[in-house]
Amino acid sequence: MTSPLLEQLIEAFRVLPGVGQKTAQRMAYHVLERERDGGRRLADALAESIERIGHCARCRDFSETETCATCASASRDVQQLCAVESPADRLVIEQATGYRGLYFVLQGRLSPLDGIGPRELGLEQLATRLATGEVQELIIATNPTVEGEATAHYLAQLARNHGVRPSRLAHGVPLGGELEYVDRGTLSHAFGSRSEMP
Amino acid sequence: MTSPLLEQLIEAFRVLPGVGQKTAQRMAYHVLERERDGGRRLADALAESIERIGHCARCRDFSETETCATCASASRDVQQLCAVESPADRLVIEQATGYRGLYFVLQGRLSPLDGIGPRELGLEQLATRLATGEVQELIIATNPTVEGEATAHYLAQLARNHGVRPSRLAHGVPLGGELEYVDRGTLSHAFGSRSEMP
């Protein structure tokens, strides 16, 4: 390598998800050869975001303000609360559905072996919120994984304890998929949960 | 999106090669959730590299010093000069071969339609260097594309004009490949250039 700084830059790029040595090299060369302005903007945005983006005090999603725009909005339905594992999940639900309620971002899932319990997921905060009586329905949108399901059961119990109706996203065959390629677990579940056609 | 800053960060990540909206989102979330320290290091490395990395005055490769370490080294063979299109090409040759000569990085290839001529590739500088009589062999390692071949022919002529022997990387069937999957052009070339077995 001709430049120790360049070596350091390549190493630094490897912090990004899915970026190995080769891709990091490509990124460093690309920025230096063709995108110095863009690279400067990226460096600034990165430094400023890390400095200023924290978590919303109400929903725990990323926010640079005390309360995020969604939680502060007067046009959202406060009777519905949707619990998701991560900010990315919140984003896809917001983009794909017409949901107008509020969110609660767990920032993880129950995983006792990794030391992630109710406290780490902010469930005390969620319980306090459910206790106010404002929320009617807790939509549980954790991932359909073993840990996500365990978290879902825990949340459902928490909701019931506060007289809130828990609901869960439907499981089944994805739209536009072919049965042949759907995994057995999903197919078996979809078969068992079949509904009468109108 | 809950945070305009986050939106800006995602947009900034898209400057990287092969990074679209989805990957940029994943990178931004990953850095904010799990890698704030690494992200800070990346921002610093990026800003500093863009600020300080320029081109070596001798070989045109990236360098933060006037002359890069390779060109400044006393242990390299000054009689061999290898011309490559990009710093990445220089790097793979350095890593894959035992080459101990020097390099000349064109930072592109002849492409009149894009306004890239001999001047943009620093060929005057290369000519001056070949004229000193120090270089015995110019190893032309431009890519085996149409433009790379055109550049190779131009460089070979330049070398001959200064009494320097031009050479070109061998073309043929890649090691470990299967003939069935080699493209026709390569196979036809390899067949025509077959050599007698010892």
TrEMBL record, chains A, B:
Q: Which UniProt keywords apply?
A: DNA damage, DNA recombination, DNA repair, Metal-binding, Zinc, Zinc-finger
Recorded hits in PROSITE patterns, A to Z, give: TOPRIM
Question: Where do the zinc-finger regions (C4-type) map?
Answer: 56-71
Q: Which residues form the Toprim domain?
A: 79-174
Q: Which regions form coiled coils?
A: none
| Family as reported in the entry's similarity comment | Belongs to the RecR family.
Q: What does this protein do?
A: May play a role in DNA repair. It seems to be involved in an RecBC-independent recombinational process of DNA repair. It may act with RecF and RecO.
The record's annotation in PANTHER family points to: RECOMBINATION PROTEIN RECR
Q: What is this protein called?
A: Recombination protein RecR
Q: Which organism is it from?
A: Luteimonas soli
* Lineage of the species this protein comes from: Bacteria, Pseudomonadati, Pseudomonadota, Gammaproteobacteria, Lysobacterales
